[in-house]
Amino acid sequence: MARIGLLGGSFNPAHAGHRHISLEAMGALDLDEVWWLVSPGNPLKAEAHDMAPYAARLASAERLARRARIRVSDFEPRAGTRFTIDTVRSLKRCYPAHQFIWLLGSDNLPNFHFWRDWRGLAREVPIAVIHRPGYDSAAHAVRAMGWLRRFVHPSSQAKQWTDWSAPAIIFLRLPPDPTSATAIRALDPHWHRRTKTLCERSHRYGSPLFARRPLDRTAR
Question: How many Å is the maximal CA-CA distance in the chain?
Fold first, then answer.
């Protein structure tokens, strides 16, 4: 039975911070793998005008995930899910032999109560809230914590998360990485155009820049 961390997001673009928190979470939670679920579109960012094409975001994630126990997935568009609650339920049906924990940056916690059926999501899988610089001071006071507070586990028990029954939440204060996708886009708003060029060049020479491995249904 594999222990899998799930990190969802737009990855617009994927960056060193995503890789950093994934590797740190692997150690803290004793994970076999972290799966990056690249979302076709974030329902809470429907009005965003700087969202790069899906292929470019997926390609940026594949490059950052190389030589690590990180698996990049296009599960959401293939499964036809839009909301995290539906994605998680579909994953649990497809991979019943795996145990999943949702990795949530503390910068996302203030908006967690806006997620579709967020209480239902918390009942499906444990949640690990990962420290992001500048957000921890208010993390415990956000609206969702009014309900989640009773399910908090001490960080000293992080590696025992597979013994918990959801809802279960843990706060991990891992070594921070200040990298921000927003800052990257501000400095380089056309980053995805180079990604597209690299993809086309790679395919032209018969060696694809990325090859998505199918998510097998067997444990590592």
Answer: 56
